[in-house]
Structure formats: structure tokens, C-alpha cells
From TrEMBL:
InterPro entries: AcTrfase_PglD-like (IPR020019), Hexapep_transf_CS (IPR018357), PglD_N (IPR041561), Trans_hexapeptide_repeat (IPR050179), Trimer_LpxA-like_sf (IPR011004). It comes from the Bacteria. Residues 3-80 form the PglD N-terminal domain. PANTHER family: ACETYLTRANSFERASE (PTHR43300), UDP-N-ACETYLBACILLOSAMINE N-ACETYLTRANSFERASE (PTHR43300:SF7). The lineage of its organism: Bacteria, Bacillati, Bacillota, Bacilli, Bacillales. This is PglD N-terminal domain-containing protein. Keywords: Repeat, Transferase. Pfam families: PglD_N. The keyword Magnesium does not apply.
Amino acid sequence: MSKLLILGAGGHGRVVADAALSTGNWDEIAFLDNNNELNDVLGKAVVGGFESYMDHREDYSAAIVAIGNNVTRMIWLDRLERAGYEIPSIIHPSSTISRFSQIERGSVIMAGVVVNASARVGKGCILNTSSSIDHDCILENGVHISPGVNVCGTVHVKSCSWLGVGSKVLNNVTIGFNVIVAAGTIVIKDIPDNVMVAGMPAKIKKNLEMKSDVGKDFFIPASYEWERNEVRTRSV
Ligand SMILES: CC(=O)SCCNC(=O)CCNC(=O)[C@H](O)C(C)(C)COP(=O)(O)OP(=O)(O)OC[C@H]1O[C@@H](n2cnc3c(N)ncnc32)[C@H](O)[C@@H]1OP(=O)(O)O
């Protein structure tokens, strides 16, 4: 029997649960959430707070993190992996994912998403509703692509960056680590690490700090420093 534990029973957690149920891959789903007023979400049990994750290891073989904040999501994903949970990727059946793309564990792909050939999506990413990731793109770990975003071919988005709703990225651009691309922005040139950009074309609006004790290396394991040539020749 396949049982999935979802960390986070908020709006994003409900969408992840819905996508997981749509796959037909899970016999049972339950949530962990720190809101102790939640007992039942979408008719599924909330079986404890986040910190109780070790207690459920025997009952639930697989777990996924449904937390919107990129850094927090990656930290919890790491804890679950270390605890021995299987970390699946959840891919909504109405998405169109190229057989020549690669999706790493812990990533969730919502309804209406398109991922084209030779794209590579790292660990713990969110590809939100009706976004598109075109050929040869590299999304490193912990990236969030918001609803309606279009990423053209051969774009590289580094770890923990967030592309806001409806933003668009032109071909061959690199977006740095821990970047926020504001809603509706058009990115036409490379963006450095740790900034928020907005506008058409994108301009830097502010510098950002990584609000976490863990260093940048935590988010970019060597295995995810992908070479573009390797991406073009790999298939699932
Ligand atoms: C399923 C789901 O719901 S997934 C979630 C999807 N939601 C989103 O994608 C929301 C994205 N959020 C945004 O775009 C927000 O505007 C944020 C996160 C960028 C705001 O970040 P903040 O750091 O709070 O920025 P702040 O509001 O201080 O604005 C800083 C500057 O950027 C500008 N700015 C902020 N957002 C935008 C935007 N979308 N377009 C143009 N300019 C913008 C502000 O006007 C301000 O400009 P100024 O300094 O010239 O006055």
C-alpha cells in the first residue's frame, strides 16, 4: 500500500494533495502541519506537527514538502531524506512533460504545466499551474516557478529563486541564486545572485539576504552543477 505524507496543509499543500490524488499512485495521504486546529484537510487527516515527522516513518514510506518558501522547503526536504523517507516527485496528469526531460525528487508539477525536451528540473522545485519550461532549461534545486510563467529555451535558474506569477524569461538567460522575479516581469538579461528584480525589462529593485543559517553550498550540491551538454543528451 502506498502512503504519502505531505508536510504543509495550507493552500499549496492542498494543491499538492490534489495533484497526488489525481495521479492515482497513492492509496492514502495524510498531512503534517503546525496549525493544531487543523484535524482534517480535504478529508485527509492531519496526523501531527512538522516536528513529529520521525514518528510517522513506519506508517508512511514516502513524504513530500508542500511549503512555499524555497529555503524552508529545502531544509525540510533534507530532513525527510535523512530520516529515510522516499521522496517522490508529484506530476499532475494534465501536465505535459517531455520524455527527454528530467524531474528530480521532491518536485511538484501542477496542472497545465509544459516541460519541453532536454529541460532539467532539480530537487524540491515547484512548477505551478500552467507554467512552461522550454527546451534545454536548467532549474536548480528549490526553484519556484509561479502560475503562468513562461521560461524560453536554454535558461538557467539557480537554486532557491522564485519567478513571480506571469513573468517571462527570454532565451539563454541565467538567473542567479536566491533571486525574486516580481509578478509580470520580463527578464531579458542575466540576473546576479540575491536580488529582487521587476519591470519590463527587469531591473534590480533591491538586494536580498538569504535568511537562513545554512550556507549556499547546502542548496547547490555538486551533482546539480549540471553541464548543458550533458542535459541535451540525457533522457528519463
Ligand atoms: C499558486 C500561487 O499563488 S503561487 C504565488 C504566486 N504569487 C506571486 O507570484 C506574487 C509575486 N509577488 C510580487 O511580485 C511582489 O510584488 C514582490 C514579492 C516582488 C514584492 O516584493 P517586496 O520586496 O515586498 O517589494 P516592494 O513591494 O517593497 O517593492 C519594491 C519595488 O519593486 C516594485 N515592484 C514590486 N513588485 C512589482 C511588480 N510585480 N512589477 C513592477 N514593479 C514591482 C515596487 O513598486 C517597488 O518599486 P519602487 O522601489 O520603485 O517604489
